[in-house]
Amino acid sequence: MNTNLIAELNRGLEGMSASERAIAEVILDAPGEVVGLSSNALAKRCNVSQSSIIKFCQKVGFQGFPALKIALSAETARSENAEQIHAGIFSDDSLGAVAKKLFASKISALSETMKANPNAILDAAVSQISAADRIMVLGVGGSALVAQDLSSKLAKFGKSVIAGGDSHIQLANLASFGEADLLISISYSGSTREVQVAVEFAQAHNIPVLHIGAYHQTPRPDVVLQCVADENVVRSSSIATRTAQMAITDLLFVLFVQRQGDVALRIHDSRMLVRKIIK
């Protein structure tokens, strides 16, 4: 079991059963409080049986609830002595420690995200992009930056893309989409309301959907690409999350470009056009 219990629980949420997710979310929401609870009290708070608590602890690598509380207590004790300013990074960390932890989290995000997305799913996503007449890339907050970047890349290679601006305007534009178009929705948590509304509308109107991030509602979008980052609990900015999202969108773009038959010519023409305004 990884010594970073909170990070491990965050990473495993997507694959948990309903009862396991209920337990994990209570622990993640209030780790300090959980340390002071009995297994029976935690079971009542999670609305699960006491045996479910024991099975959960064993599944995540502990013999029982007391062992899990010891690991959780060690993490929360560190938080009491130093302010946590970002996932795993504390106010009393040295410059070298901050750099090491930050780069490690980004490397972990890249590695885990790559493992989470089989080649078949990536191929299906690229096929959607290639086949679409029009594409809407929708993201809110930090995900909007990722959406804008992907949109500009795809537009450079001839795709008709709508992205950026007010999310209400984007949702209104989605109403004109049809079965030959594509909605690319980006949300790390999958709980962004604008994204949920857009996906639900697309599904109801047979508009293909490619979702990047977690998605817990049913029915799920046609293709879902996972993003993995250990910074759900305390973060000053979505650094590792954005790293994972950008890795996926950059990969999609490169794979899409690879399928184009006139890549060299398009790149050459793009460079020549830009050079005309450079003195």
> Major sheet: order of its strands?
4-3-5-6-7
How many domain regions?
A: 2
Q: Note the gap between the termini.
A: 59 Å
Task: Please compute the radius of gyration using only Cα atoms.
Answer: 22 Å
Mean pLDDT, to the nearest integer, reads 85
Query: Count the strands?
Result: 7
Task: Flag low-confidence runs.
Answer: none
Q: Percent range for helical residues? A: 55-70%
Q: Using the alpha-carbon principal axes, give the shape.
A: globular
Keywords for this entry:
279 residues; Rossmann fold; alpha/beta; 13 helices; Arc Repressor Mutant, subunit A
Would you spell out the secondary-structure blueprint of this structure?
Blueprint: H1 5-12, H2 18-29, H3 31-34, H4 39-46, H5 50-59, H6 65-81, E1 84-86, E2 89-90, H7 95-116, H8 119-131, E3 134-139, H9 142-156, E4 160-163, H10 167-174, E5 182-186, H11 193-204, E6 209-212, E7 223-225, H12 239-258, H13 263-275
Parallel strand pairs: 3-4, 3-5, 5-6, 6-7
Antiparallel strand pairs: 1-2
